[in-house]
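Hey, resending since the last one bounced:
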Amino acid sequence: MMLVLRPLAWVNTHILRLCRRLGALALALMVIVILTQVFCRYVLNNALAWPDEAARFLMLWLVGLMAPSAMRWGGFVAIDTLPNMLSRVPGLVLNLVLLCFSFAVLMIAVQHGQAHTFGFGGNFDSSSLRVPLEWVGGEGFKIKLRYMYGSLLFCAVMLSVVTVELILRTIMALISPETELPDTDEFAMAMGAAD
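The structure tokens again:
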């Protein structure tokens, strides 16, 4: 099982590190877009049409990029009274059952995300977001909503992959508690790929 867990942990560490950087960039851009709208609306008295939708686009991707790291690190809100009251093995079994339920729900979310991104809803154009290629002599076009909805699909897929890693970690903790499991970013450092 460690033959699967170690490479999966290594891949997750690197992908999630990139996701956190892109999420930070999305947050910075979202702040800039919102401040631009505030300036134009209240200082210039001329509200722009695109910043609200651009901020929503960036917020959805921010969540989609950051949520898998939060899940991997146990950063989601959780009611952990019952698992903490149980001894080690029953607590791990309960955790394993909950992770399996989470994985089943995430598989449904992946299906919905795929249907929404590549199906009928994703074919519509954004109401205000467009790529202004006319600024460089081309023809501008509106952005398809599938690029916004793709954040749900990406998030559900990455949460599923992280959940598989957490399930493997829990199984390893149950069957071989003395085995040292790969850490999140520390494992990447041991492999020589740290920043």
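Confidence is low (pLDDT under 50) at residues 186-195.

Sorry for the duplicate.
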